[in-house]
Write a structure and sequence with these properties.
11 strands, 237 residues, Carbamate kinase, 9-stranded mixed beta sheet, 39% helix, alpha/beta, 9 helices, globular, two-stranded antiparallel sheet
């Protein structure tokens, strides 16, 4: 039987992934679908940590452009990621996957505080760990939080789950002539200004030799395919 290519990963999911076709908020059916894919790779013995955004509820950058104080807007966005983390935790535990939410902002009634050693212990016990509230600091995205946490826990790679099947020269939804990359170097992403992850996150990954795999989350079974080394999506290394 073929064995997984990765032993420990951080799965980065956008908040929009949870809204499905609703346009806003959370579609419980989508949450269960994502949780089912996570359980599939969890059953392979892979250590899984998850970082989820909050674009389905609140976007700090957009709010700040509309006149809100940037720090305040970012903190609100961090709180929204806690909501999404709890949704995903509920979906996973309904499928029998033991899960812990660790928050960079203390909300002790809802989640554990982020403590690296405790997170590592949860992973060793084969619990899925969901890192909420980003880095706990304004001006940093959840992409940067995913890169930071992945490095801290010694992950083999970041799995960037999106609605498209990789990185393109331009938006494939708007441009039919968009060309897909199967492999990219970190510097290419930075120089070309490709909207994969923000520059801070890409630089962190580059400095620590942490691969980024970008793939389509909406196709069932794709997380498992990536884990097994199938050539889908785009690899940035």
């Amino acid at each position: 039987m073929k064995t997984p290519v990765y032993k420990r990963i951080v799965l980065k999911i956008s908040g929009e992934a949870l809204q499905g076709d609703l346009g806003y908020g959370v579609d419980p059916k989508v949450a269960i679908s994502i949780a089912s894919q996570v359980r599939e790779i969890h059953d392979l013995g892979i250590d899984i940590a998850i970082v989820i955004g909050a674009g389905n509820i609140f976007r700090g950058i957009q709010a700040s452009k509309a006149g809100m104080d940037r720090s305040t807007a970012d903190y609100i966005g961090m709180l929204a990621t806690i909501i999404n983390s709890m949704v995903l935790q509920d979906a996973l535990e309904k499928l029998g996957v033991h899960t812990r939410v660790q928050s960079a902002i203390e909300v002790k009634e809802l989640a554990e505080p982020y403590i690296r050693r405790r997170a590592m212990r949860h992973l060793e016990k084969k619990r899925v760990v969901i890192f909420a509230a980003g880095t706990g600091n304004p001006y940093f995205t959840t992409d940067t939080a995913a890169a930071l946490r992945a490095i801290e826990i010694g992950a083999d790679a970041i799995m960037k789950a999106t609605k498209v099947d990789g990185v393109y020269t331009k938006d494939p939804v708007k441009h039919k002539d968009a060309r897909k990359f199967t492999k990219l170097k970190y510097l290419d992403v930075l120089k070309k200004g490709l909207q994969v992850m923000d520059a801070t996150a890409v630089t962190l990954c580059m400095d620590n030799q942490l691969p980024i795999l970008v793939f389509n989350l909406t196709k069932p079974g794709n997380i498992r395919r990536v884990m097994m080394g199938e050539p889908i999506g785009t690899v940035i290394s």
